[in-house]
């Protein structure tokens, strides 16, 4: 049976604008993490509803349809909230399917190496890919998300498959990927290789804030889902 873990830690600004949901049907599990921009009540409200829409529709019709359906929900608000999302579908005997839009991420842990399988849809990443500016300048644009759920279509959503021999898949908001070092990630994966809930708890606890322009400590919301499939025998 696929085991799961989930943890969310509210940042220094409230209320939390991350969201997550896990759905199970027989031996298959679907999961989603979303990360809203800002903390407006509409953003927070969508973060509560979108993850379950993505996982339930994803279970029935696939991750792309799940993201697009959740994206149509943004039109229910006066100003469509900006929200990144990542979805996974894990089932024994199959690769793990990943769909995403924005800068939520999917990682795989094979027991030795942590690999990022998704690519951020940010202006910084666009500049790295297309060139023309120094990498230092591109890094200053990583907070500029180019796409989110409100722009979700067959063209804008991305997809990848993580091989079945990668037993652990992690879905995270950028509060985790930006605030937990790669060394800490890998150390925690080695420490909790068989306990997805302990790993999720440890990752959100490890997120470190930084001083903002006013000198105040700022720490983003952090959300993790860990999926762990049994090794093939």
From TrEMBL:
The alphabetical list of record keywords is:
Membrane, Transmembrane, Transmembrane helix
Q: Which Pfam families match?
A: SpoIIE
Gene3D superfamilies in the record? PPM-type phosphatase domain
TM spans (from-to) = 50-70
- Which domain of life does the UniProt lineage start with? Bacteria
Q: Which residues form the PPM-type phosphatase domain?
A: 141-227
The family database entries (InterPro entries) matched by this protein are listed as: PPM-type-like_dom_sf, PPM-type_phosphatase-like_dom
User: What is the protein name given in its UniProt record?
Assistant: SpoIIE family protein phosphatase
């Amino acid at each position: 049976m696929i085991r799961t873990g989930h943890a969310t830690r509210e940042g220094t600004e409230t209320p939390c604008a991350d969201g997550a949901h896990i759905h199970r049907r027989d031996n298959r599990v679907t999961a989603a993490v979303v990360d809203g921009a800002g903390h407006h009540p509409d953003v927070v409200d969508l973060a509560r509803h979108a993850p379950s829409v993505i996982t339930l529709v994803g279970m029935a019709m696939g991750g792309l349809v799940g993201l697009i359906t959740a994206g149509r929900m943004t039109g229910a608000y006066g100003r469509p909230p900006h929200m990144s999302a990542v979805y996974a579908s894990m089932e024994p005997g199959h690769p793990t399917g990943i769909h995403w839009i924005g800068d939520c991420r999917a990682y795989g842990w094979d027991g030795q190496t942590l690999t990022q399988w998704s690519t951020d849809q940010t202006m910084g990443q666009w500049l790295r890919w297309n060139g023309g500016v120094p990498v230092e300048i591109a890094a200053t644009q990583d907070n500029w998300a180019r796409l989110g759920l409100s722009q979700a279509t067959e063209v804008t959503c991305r997809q990848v498959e993580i091989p079945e021999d990668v037993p652990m898949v992690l879905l995270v908001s950028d509060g985790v990927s930006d605030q937990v070092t790669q060394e800490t990630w890998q150390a925690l994966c080695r420490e909790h290789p068989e306990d997805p809930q302990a790993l999720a708890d440890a990752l959100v606890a490890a997120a470190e804030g930084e001083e903002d322009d006013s000198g105040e400590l700022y720490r983003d919301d952090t959300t993790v889902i860990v999926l762990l499939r049994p090794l093939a025998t």
